[in-house]
Amino acid sequence: MNDRYLSVDKVVELLGTTARFPRRLIEERRIRYVKVGRHVRIPESAVREYIASRTVGPVGLRRTGLRRVA
Question: Coiled coil: which residue ranges (predicted)?
Answer without folding.
Answer: none
